[in-house]
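Run log // design_07
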């Protein structure tokens, strides 16, 4: 980090200050965006810091530095999407090709993993990471990579990061954690020993639902070099404008999350007391089976939740016809509140049997809580629920 006084600063200070007042040309307070494709050489054999924007860009460097700092890594690789960040991970597996992943990880991640397994790039093992015996069996032989995702989508099940990361290391695996659902403001997997953190920056890090992006945070300089090489090689690096937007968005991460989480807690409590709601899945509720674990490994329960309507899919259809304020849309982590029916939207690619195994029922709805006033959000849910059977 270029500013010494930032070394011991809190993350909420670093996220604002990194890159501020760093413009050598005009002293711009906000770092300017560099939209150029290419850079001149000073003369024969005299390359400057950058030559071509696929391999390097100053705007991208600043957002990479911010995200690496927030996660406690040594560097980050900024790419065009969360999936592109994940796809870097198995380009350079050490030793063997065995990759162990959660059976309920994000559907797009599963599609990508299945495609790479079909190509022979990886040997893929799905495991229920909530099942101690299953995970121990899966990690009883040499493994190259263990991928973790907590909380799970959409049921908000947590896994014990400290325990699973140690198990992964015991069988020789490097461990990557997809931290998209909580963001570095609420969970820092590297503190528990993770080797990599992956983000769909599309979600909380950008936070405004107007950029698709991803980051791979590494814990060794060698890995930063390796995965930057791969990002450049496959042409997956993040565009300068997306990097600029994401940098602008991440500056407010901590205040956004604080507010969104406060509203989420109030909404979860409201839903938990409603007669038409069968179950609420939110780690901030004492009734959540891993409420204590959430307090141990998270700085807060987050702003995502799911709940089950007692009236099943018919009640869901009725609610979708009348609900106000919540947009019926996929994705999460933005300033706007969203409602999703996982079985027919985000998780539609899963077979009915797989949905049943994962516990995703027809009456389940997922909420991403935004920055609207929580009283208005609760009133909208209350009016909506009053109109369903
Ligand atoms: N990981 C998680 C947990 C996600 O929810 C998503 C997208 O929803 C991704 C990865 C993929 O990110 P992107 O859509 O930016 O490729």
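design_07 sequence
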């Amino acid at each position: 980090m270029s500013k010494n006084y930032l070394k011991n600063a809190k993350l909420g200070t670093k996220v604002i200050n990194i890159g501020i007042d760093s413009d050598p040309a005009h002293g711009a307070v906000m770092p300017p965006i560099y939209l150029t494709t290419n850079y001149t050489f000073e003369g024969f054999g005299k390359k400057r810091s950058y030559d071509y924007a696929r391999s390097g860009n100053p705007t991208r460097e600043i957002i990479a530095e911010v995200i690496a700092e927030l996660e406690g890594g040594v560097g980050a690789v900024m790419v065009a999407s969360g999936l592109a960040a994940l796809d870097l991970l198995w380009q350079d597996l050490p030793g063997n090709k065995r990759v162990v992943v959660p059976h309920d990880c994000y559907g797009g991640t599963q599609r990508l993993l299945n495609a790479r397994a079909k190509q022979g790039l990886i040997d893929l093992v799905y495991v229920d990471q909530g099942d101690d015996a299953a995970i121990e069996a899966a990690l009883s032989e040499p493994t190259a990579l263990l991928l973790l995702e907590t909380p799970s989508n959409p049921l908000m099940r947590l896994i014990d990061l400290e325990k699973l990361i140690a198990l992964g290391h015991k069988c020789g695996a490097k461990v990557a954690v997809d931290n998209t659902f909580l963001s570095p403001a609420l969970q820092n997997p590297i503190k528990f020993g993770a080797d990599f953190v992956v983000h769909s920056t599309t979600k909380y890090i950008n936070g405004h639902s107007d950029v698709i992006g991803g980051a791979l945070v590494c814990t060794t300089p060698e890995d930063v070099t390796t995965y930057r090489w791969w990002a450049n090689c496959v042409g997956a690096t993040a565009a300068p404008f997306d990097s600029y937007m994401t940098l602008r968005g991440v500056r407010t991460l901590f205040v956004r999350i604080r507010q969104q989480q406060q509203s989420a807690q109030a909404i979860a409590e409201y839903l938990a007391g409603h007669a038409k709601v069968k179950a609420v899945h939110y780690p901030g509720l004492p009734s959540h089976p891993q409420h204590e674990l959430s307090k141990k490994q998270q700085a807060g329960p987050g702003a995502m939740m799911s709940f089950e309507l007692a009236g099943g899919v018919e009640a869901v259809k009725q609610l979708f016809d009348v609900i106000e304020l919540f947009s019926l849309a996929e994705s999460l982590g933005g300033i706007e509140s969203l409602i999703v029916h996982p079985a027919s939207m985000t998780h539609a690619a899963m077979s009915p049997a797989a949905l049943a195994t994962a516990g995703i029922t027809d009456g389940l709805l997922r909420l991403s809580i935004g920055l609207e006033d929580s009283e208005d959000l609760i009133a909208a849910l209350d009016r909506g629920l009053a109109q369903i059977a």
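The CA atoms of residues 165 and 193 lie 6 Å apart.
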